[in-house]
């Protein structure tokens, strides 16, 4: 049996010799202890009341705003996020905390009439206790925040186990949150599988974002314990382009959704489905748009596609192109970073990994469809169902032709990437398990409903 690592280091994907962070592993006992300390602190956090929780979350938002430049630079350095995207993520992170700062004042239940006779029936939502959060590296501030903020707003304590590649970002976020909340109400446990398993075994509710394989373990183990769980586990998202679409605009949106942040988003476009006469003009426009995207140093404000997160990720990208015909590829810069050229493949054979697996890299397959119904069947033919983008010149297809899409989100005349944090987020099939994240759906996940019968 392989021994668990004693420390975790994160490296700059644009310059792997740059060690951003090297911290001791928490270990299983350290993670379990963090959960127990959080459990002891949680009742006081709940009893502090709505005003205290609202004020604390507002203070976190203000602290993130004040540190925005520093946080964006850290995301660029630790996870290779292009600077423009890093700035946008930090701004969205502050907005998430500010949005949920109002949640403690929202109603937590309702009063009902009895079926007959005097008395009252009440429903009330109460926090679970300790929310265990297991988060990925690709949105190192936003994803922990859109899980932690509603959990805290509802009166839970939080233990966060971030991906090792984003340890420095998680620890810096924790510093800002911990300035606003009581001790042990928000804790980060650096580590890997050992620490994650300890959180799964001890927390009162679990929210996970990551790979499908690990998500399956998370849902199995938490379900066996009988605790609430939500797991967002990726996608193999399609962009459907109809003949009446603005082809140039659609190509620009799709190219950005394929190659933005080197395709390292669960909402990235992996398959492009051209319907009927759209194929040839889209083929040319998409090739041109992809080649025009700036690829390079993520610290450059103009960069759209930076490096992949690791050498292993670069290897998966290379393997994914085996057996496929490349339609167009951008230019990957020379240098020490883990860069990959944004690529669109065509004439991809059935069963190819580009059509069955989430590569998590800047690559997509171009596929023809006879009509909209055929395009919907192609879109639905994979195990995932997170998001589909549809590009059309009219609303008829969007309103009447897309009900058959088996995805949690549909974006019309917009890239598949992009999240509205005040609305439910999540997918179907292998893309997700359990209740949706974000918006009011998150507040419902982090609480359980109680029914009270009050007899006179």
Q: Could you report the average pLDDT, rounded to the nearest whole number?
A: 96
The spatial strand order of the largest sheet comes to: 12-13-14-11-10-16-17
Beta-strand percent range = 15-25%
Tell me the major beta sheet: 7 strands, mixed
- Tell me the radius of gyration: 23 Å
Number of DSSP-assigned strands? 20
Total helical elements: 14
- The helix content, as a percent range, equals 25-40%
Amino-to-carboxy terminus distance:
62 Å
What shape does the CA trace take? globular
Poorly predicted regions: none
How does the helix and strand content classify structurally? alpha/beta
Question: How are the elements arranged and paired?
Answer:
Layout: E1 7-12, E2 15-24, H1 27-47, H2 50-66, H3 68-79, H4 83-100, E3 109-112, E4 120-127, E5 130-135, H5 142-153, E6 157-162, H6 167-178, E7 186-188, H7 193-202, E8 205-209, H8 212-225, E9 229-232, E10 237-241, H9 247-259, E11 269-275, H10 279-292, H11 311-320, E12 325-329, E13 343-346, E14 363-369, H12 372-380, E15 384-385, E16 387-391, H13 396-400, E17 409-412, E18 428-429, E19 432-433, H14 439-445, E20 447-454
Parallel strand pairs: 5-6, 5-8, 6-7, 8-9, 10-11, 10-16, 11-14, 13-14, 16-17
Antiparallel strand pairs: 1-2, 3-4, 4-20, 9-19, 12-13, 15-18
Helix pairs in contact: 1-7, 2-4, 3-4, 3-6, 4-5, 9-10
